[in-house]
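Hi there, hope your week has been kind to you so far. Thanks so much in advance, here it is:
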Amino acid sequence: MAQILTACRIGAEWGFRDVTGEAYGHSTDIEKVVEAAHHMAGRVEGNRVALTDEAERHLQAVRVQSVLDSERRNSVNWLRSFRSLLARLRGRRDRR
């Protein structure tokens, strides 16, 4: 019989519950909780994972922050590369 696993806040952590209210997958990392819920849901055909509104908002915020952090790292790396190139070009010009 298919069931819904719901990712939600459980105390201070995130976890997921089945239809009986049994709690699984406690973690402070909501992405790991959702991944574990999908893994468990995949064991029985027709099972699915749902998120509470709070969990959905938090997961979205975590993903946005991850993208922003990635972009910040990329821009810092680009700036370092550009500065390195300028330094090499200046060094060549000074040798002439």
Summary: The first helix runs from residue 30 to 41.
